Amino acid sequence: MIMCFPKGLICANEPLNYKVNNGRVIGGSDAKPNTWKWQISLQLDLYNEGSFSHICGGSIVDSFYIMTAAHCIIRWVFLALDICSLFEYEGSEQFTSVEKIIVHPDWNGDLANGNDIALLKLVNPIYDNGYVEITNLPYPDQTLPHGFTCYITGWGLMDYNGSVPDKLQVAPLAVVEHAVCSQPEWWGSIALKTMVCAGGDGVISGCQGDSGGPLNCLTDGVWRVHGVVSYGPAGVCNQKFKPTVFTRVSSFLHWMYSVNNMHEATRMK
């Protein structure tokens, strides 16, 4: 599950004696249906034929807004909500298009510069059909301790061979504190304090197709989305000392709440 990004790749050397992990989502497993209700699939009609393909993930942060990564943004996108299987219609899905794209004003296309976050305003509001849910967000500037276990979810590649999952995948990732992740043998100076690093054990990781999706963490007794998948190593996704890097949501709450008067009270529980 992270993304070895189609745009602005940040490269890392492929480790010697690398062996493909044949587990789901590079160490993950099929997610239990109706569990990660705020996860969405961002989809694009590549050939204008009415056939949409998954390109990135995202999180429901308001009945009218989706949070995703800025580098995922393509002009015309389509959202599929409450889906567990990408290839099987389950009857509980919601589908909607995007009315407006709001990219963070300091995003310049360089993943190492940070600010890789965007909001998508929907044409129609998301309705509660029992299968979708607005996520909770962290507190302003909230950080997670080193080693804290969170979960990444998405439909990213499952192995180095490019296997695509049918079912939504979930995998545990341990948070790597900034003091460690910013060391030279890890991500060095491109790991910013406005980012969250998680993983890096060489076994479990995200992979291409997970960008924009959530880092789900149980804090204060509530599941909150603490991160938005931003970047990872090119080539082999699950490299040791190269954890998945997320945009730290708690660093961007002020901007998010300023966008068209999103209501802070509904985000914090």
From TrEMBL:
Q: Does the keyword Metal-binding apply?
A: no
**Xref: CDD domains:** Tryp_SPc
State the Pfam families in the record.
Answer: Trypsin
Gene3D superfamilies cross-referenced by the UniProt entry: Trypsin-like serine proteases
- All residue ranges annotated as the Peptidase S1 domain in the record: 25-261
Q: Name one GO cellular component term.
A: extracellular space
Q: What biological processes does GO assign it?
A: proteolysis
Q: List the molecular function annotations (GO) for this entry.
A: serine-type endopeptidase activity
Question: Which residues belong to the signal peptide in this entry?
Answer: none
Keyword Hydrolase listed? The answer is yes
Q: Which keywords annotate this record?
A: Disulfide bond, Hydrolase, Protease, Serine protease
Indicate the family of this protein.
Answer: Belongs to the peptidase S1 family. CLIP subfamily.
Query: Know the name of this protein?
Result: Peptidase S1 domain-containing protein
Organism of origin is Poecilia mexicana
